[in-house]
Specification:
The chain is of the alpha/beta class. Helix content is 49%, strand content 15%. A seven-stranded mixed β-sheet has the order 2-3-4-1-5-6-8, sandwiched between helices. A two-stranded antiparallel ribbon has the order 7-9. The structure holds guanosine-5'-diphosphate, potassium ion (K) and magnesium ion.
């Protein structure tokens, strides 16, 4: 069975190094449709039927930059079988912002906790098991530069792709937001793919224009969604997109506080 793996991660997380290590000389560079951003594709070494797509380096899946739009369109519309999310372990808190958004999409994800050589040298300790449980996805320690962990990473990615199960991650937003999301989900569930329902509910809640353009809903439904959003905005006294962003940062900082122990000043593990 042919498998397509997408590599996604922040700039400087080691994506190019990882892509080169995984694909060797089998790379082809083209363009994403209609734009001049490079699209790199390759075959996984020793696996002729495994294609790896290198997505542009991004900090989030918001609709604001060309790179973000390319990445989200690819993940949501083209649907790779599995996503390898490269996380710079030495900058974990910043990198996890993109991770939560990738997990929301609903495609199976494996996290490559990269730069693990730097993490280990620094003496920081990341509780991989707890992190993996919390995010409901496998976390594999890698050093793209030294070539460690890559075999385990690709093995896990192929295994998930072949199992064909959708992601099960569901972070809890605050009660008013969860209520709004489930009401929105009820209204849009016949218009969007099942596996992406959570993603679309969040995007509708954020009034994400790119999504509003793509998914056709009746004016009545649109009006109902707007009422749901307005009620939540009134209750939380903030606009919907910034509610999602600030609750995301809170969630990530909780995760990091619980599962990452910094070696030096300012230990982040609570007590
Ligand atoms: P990209 O922007 O995500 O494509 O990142 P690059 O692959 O260009 O990597 C950024 C820098 O980090 C380069 O200098 C790499 O050699 C280095 N790098 C990548 N992966 C690792 C790793 O696992 N450990 C260490 N120590 N350095 C790495
Ligand atoms: K770079
Ligand atoms: Mg790069």
């Amino acid at each position: 069975m042919p498998v397509t793996i997408a590599l996604a991660g922040n700039p400087n997380s080691g994506k190019t190094t990882m892509f080169n290590a995984l694909t060797g000389s089998s790379q082809r560079v083209g363009n994403w449709p209609g734009v001049t951003v490079d699209k790199k594709e390759g075959r996984l070494k020793k696996y002729k039927d495994v294609t790896i797509i290198d997505l542009p380096g991004i900090y989030s899946l918001s609709p604001y930059t060309l790179e973000e739009v390319i990445s989200r369109d690819y993940l949501v519309n083209e649907k790779p079988d599995v996503i390898i999310n490269i996380v710079d372990g030495s900058n974990i808190e910043r990198n996890l912002y993109l991770t939560t958004q990738i997990l929301d999409v609903g495609i199976p994800v494996v996290i490559a906790l990269n730069m693990i050589d730097i993490v280990n040298k620094s003496g920081d300790i990341i509780d991989i098991k707890k992190l993996s449980e919390t995010l409901s996805c496998p976390v594999i320690e890698t050093s793209a530069q030294k070539g460690t962990g890559l075999e385990a990473l690709t093995k896990k990615a192929i295994e998930l792709a072949k199992a064909g199960k959708k992601g099960t991650f569901k972070r809890q937003f605050s009660k008013p937001v969860e209520l709004a999301l489930s009401n929105i989900a009820e209204l849009i569930k016949n218009n969007v793919p099942d596996e992406n329902l959570r993603w679309y509910s969040i995007k509708f809640f954020e009034r994400d224009e790119k999504v509003l353009e793509r998914i056709t809903l009746s004016d009545v439904i649109k009006g109902k969604i707007e009422q749901i959003i307005l009620a939540c905005e009134e209750e939380l006294d903030d606009n919907s997109a910034s509610i999602i962003a600030s609750e995301s940062y809170e969630y990530i900082s909780d995760v990091v506080r619980s599962y990452v122990k910094k070696s030096r000043s300012g230990t982040t593990l609570s007590d």
